[in-house]
Amino acid sequence: MATAVAIKLADENVPTAEELVAQARAMIPNLKARARQCVANRDVSVETIAEMQAAGFFRILQPKRWGGYEMHPNTFFEVQKALAEGCMSTGWMYGVVGCHPYELALFHNKAQQEVWGSDNSMLVSSSYQPVGKVTPVEGGFRLSGHWGFSTGSSHCGWVLLGAMVPPSEPVGPPDMRTFLVPRGDYSIGTDAWQTFGLQGTGSHDVIVDDAFVPDYRTHRAVDGFLCANPGQEENDGPLYTLPWAQVFTRSVSTAAFGGARAAVNAAIKIMQDRVSTNTGKASRADPNLHAAIARAHAQILEMESTLRLTMDELMSLAESGQPIPMEKRALFTYNSSTVVRRLADLVDDIVQLLGGRAIYMSSEIIQPWLDLHAGRAHVANDPANRESDVLGTMLGEPPAFSFL
Hints:
With about 400 residues, the chain is an alpha+beta fold. Helix content is about 50%, strand content about 15%. The chain has helices spanning about 1-10, 15-25, 30-40, 45-55, 75-85, 90-105, 110-115, 220-225, 245-250, 255-275, 285-320, 325-350, 365-375, 385-395, and strands spanning about 125-135, 140-150, 160-165, 175-180, 185-190, 205-215, 220. Strand 1 (about 125-135) and strand 2 form a beta hairpin.
């Protein structure tokens, strides 16, 4: 009975999607003011994390039974875009760490209890590179390895790590899994995160030395692909029947919308009063700059609309209990994979038309420009990894890349 009462009280206090987005937008001035320190520290500040926690942002994709809001993913992505407009590093970090409650909801219930049982605000970081060394043992696995790119790791008490489980038979394929590891079983290396963009994401290294991971604290990639995850027994809402990849891939492309919007706003601000000291021409009268800004503005809205509508379609299928066709899954992940590169190119076109004013590190356009180019490096933001599956599924062939 106590649990039922607790859940009822939590439901009564759940903010609306509009309230959450408004709170995120209200944070933009403070995030802008903190952005340089965020970059200098190579991590999001504890004050910003606390504000996001208090606003409930990390609960948007968390199951209701663990105090979460279990909302439509588009609410999550609208919050992410707003945060990234203030500071793209912060928006990127939020997208990665904030989507992990979704994957954790797919794990065995015992794993969820270990993470959220005593503190349902616990945060989890990740590094999905399958670089771990795995040795099967009774009841689970021994795991060792050195992973990079664990965004937000200094603020988290657990980490999700990628590794291949060796085949049980010599001719069998390896079993790709995500291993859930508590903070006491790994260390964080902060020296390696020295990058030209997204410096403030705190994407540090994680080192594991022969830790035991029980089987129930692993998530098989094939289960995520088939939408047949152990956690769906308890978390049985339509949200958790989506393919995990459809949520994750967008979490590492959506911050770019906020970064691009910040860059466009900065360009307009520079344009208002810039007059070339060499030619005497005013940027306000430069048709090429006008065209580049207009093109960026229009295409940002176009790409946002595409991803919003495709997620609406995914949720509509999930809510009706219909399977999501593989052709749509391949196309939708491809759409997401093109976003960061397209936005970076659009901002490139603007920056080269702003003259010397835009090359100073003090210029408001430089950091989002650098962040966009750094974001291109993520494997999920490389369209070349998706093109064959788009064409193949159009022809009725099975996908070659299972993370769809």
